[in-house]
Amino acid sequence: MHETVLLHESVAALAVRADGFYVDATFGRGGHSGLILQQLGPAGRLLGIDKDPQAIAVAHEQFGSDPRFSIEQGAFSQLADLIARRGMTGKVDGVLMDLGVSSPQLDEAARGFSFMRDGELDMRMDPTRGQSAAAFLATATDETIADVLYRLGEERQSRRIARAIVAAREVEPITRTVQLANIVAEALPRHEKHKHPATRTFLALRLFVNDELGEVERVLPQAFEVLAPGGRLAVISFHSLEDRIVKQYLKREAKGDDLPKDLPIRASEIHARVKLHGKVVPSAQEVARNPRSRSAVLRIAEKLA
User: Fold this and answer.
1) What mean pLDDT comes out for the span 142-159?
2) Which of 2, 188, 268, 303 is deepest in the core (most CB within 10 A)?
3) What is the CATH code for 126-209?
4) What pLDDT does residue 270 have?
5) What is the DSSP letter of 72?
6) Is it the case that residue 268 has pLDDT exceeding 80?
7) Cβ density class 178-195: b for 16+ within 10 Å, e for less
8) Where are the domains of the chain?
9) What CATH superfamily is the domain 7-104+212-303?
């Protein structure tokens, strides 16, 4: 069963107004959207966005009859275009992003996200677009595979794993999740206790196949482009690479103009574009109830002008 992480905290961060216009840029299974709609009045509006065709089907099923709600299939890096089409650029009151994959995506073997369930080695959030993980591993050099595993999975044994993958594919194509997990496990006879040796490999491949970090880098400036002054951005990250991108971007925007340290200038003359509202992590109770929430970090920011 899917449980939305930091549900109440993230929606509270938006400071929802009954007549506001909001964007749930990662609809998933609709947990955030449902709570936002509860707080909107008849004049309020909510736009949902998601790559996953299954998420789009859920959106139509759950909220299709609600005139305040609309859904778009696509990447959240299309945010600026989707809002411009509605004539709402600079008028959005809040944008919420819940990064990463949802529990239903992890739990469905056919999607290929998890080494815990045998399925096609796909990993695409939108299975109709782009290159699957299996297709990438079938042709990439060991140097390219090692770079992806090291850069995106922070896997210190990336070269050893990459060589094992290339050797294994010469025997038979690597097309299944458990098949890949076994190749990695055999390549790493020593690994961390209580952690499957393929954990970092699967994370890196998922991030690569979906260009997840690139998507985050592209969407953050768009979020502040579409927000109205006083509008809020709430972003939930689940691992350090995502969170670092969000944290550093927000910090730069909050700092304002990049001026020499010893330049005599008043604080009021520094054109900060963003006000930070801190970060939130799950409570001990939430982590106990939903262990997948343990690495989540919610960062909140407000557009100043």
Assistant:
1) 97
2) 303
3) 1.10.150.170
4) 60
5) E
6) no
7) bbbbebbbebbeeeeeee
8) 7-104+212-303, 126-209
9) Vaccinia Virus protein VP39 (3.40.50.150)
